[in-house]
Task: inverse folding
């Protein structure tokens, strides 16, 4: 990689950020597309989102990815917000406009739906769906699934108020439910972090059965305990790495003004990075 004064800079901000796969994904995609870009990660402390955006303006970043805990802070400090991000009150992608303003959008939900279609062969249109969780990831997924034409979206969460607020993002097809609804769902989505680097599962797996698709947004490990159990019950399984890849494809397009990233290149780079991290240090 040759970096010069003409090289455009993209970055991801978050805290902590050392675990991020984004540099691997984006740098592989930039290289494959023959673009003179480089992508890095910055650990930005909570509460400093506005400072990071100021740095983006001053230093002329070509694009900014945003992860926890800054999505709401960035939303409050960009100049223009797309409607979907406004509904979520959350921004995970910032691009500079020609007039100097910063434009914020949310790509998580659309990336999830794209991954569901591309990686699992499942179109959410007309499906009965249960989403477990009501945090930021769940909210973006519920919003995107509703826009994709889901017939029903049931939100299950331990906190009823948060479940209600998340379900309302789906409009008339959304409602608050309970774990028993899982048995009757076409698609079940774990939108919590339960199962990340552990053998925990977010609900009773005896509710799962053949004919369902079970999706987990966790990608470390790639095959979570939930997906293992779903596979044993002959359900179709969908891992969490696809959402990360496909939301990055959306961001890549926005950063570059329309250039398409190859999701296979991004996924291969992410898999290689995960494999590298799994090798014990000598």
Result:
């Amino acid at each position: 990689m040759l970096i010069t004064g003409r090289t455009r800079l993209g970055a991801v901000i978050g805290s902590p950020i050392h675990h991020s796969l984004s540099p691997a994904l984006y740098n592989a995609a930039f290289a494959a597309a023959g673009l003179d870009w480089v992508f890095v990660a910055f650990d930005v402390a909570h509460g400093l989102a506005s400072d990071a955006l100021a740095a983006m303006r001053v230093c002329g970043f070509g694009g900014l990815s945003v992860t926890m805990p800054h999505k709401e802070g960035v939303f409050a400090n960009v100049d223009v917000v797309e409607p979907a991000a406004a509904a979520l009150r959350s921004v995970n992608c910032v691009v500079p406009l020609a007039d100097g303003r910063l434009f914020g959008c949310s790509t998580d939900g659309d990336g999830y739906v794209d991954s569901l279609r591309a990686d699992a062969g499942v179109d959410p249109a007309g499906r009965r769906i249960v989403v477990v969780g009501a945090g930021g990831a769940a909210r973006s997924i519920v919003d995107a699934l509703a826009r994709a034409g889901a017939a029903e979206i049931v939100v299950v969460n331990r906190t009823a108020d948060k479940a209600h607020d998340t379900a309302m993002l789906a409009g008339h097809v959304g409602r608050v439910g309970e774990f028993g609804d899982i048995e009757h769902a076409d698609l079940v989505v774990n939108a919590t972090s339960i199962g990340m680097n552990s053998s925990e599962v977010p609900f009773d797996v005896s509710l799962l059965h053949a004919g369902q698709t079970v999706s987990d947004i966790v990608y470390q490990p790639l095959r979570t305990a939930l997906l293992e159990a779903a596979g044993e019950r002959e359900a179709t399984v969908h891992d969490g790495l696809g959402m990360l890849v496909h939301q990055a494809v959306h961001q890549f397009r926005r950063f570059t003004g329309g250039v398409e990233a190859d999701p296979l290149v991004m996924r291969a780079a992410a898999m290689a990075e995960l494999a590298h991290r799994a090798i014990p240090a000598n």
Notes: Residues 126 and 163 are 22 Å apart (CA to CA).
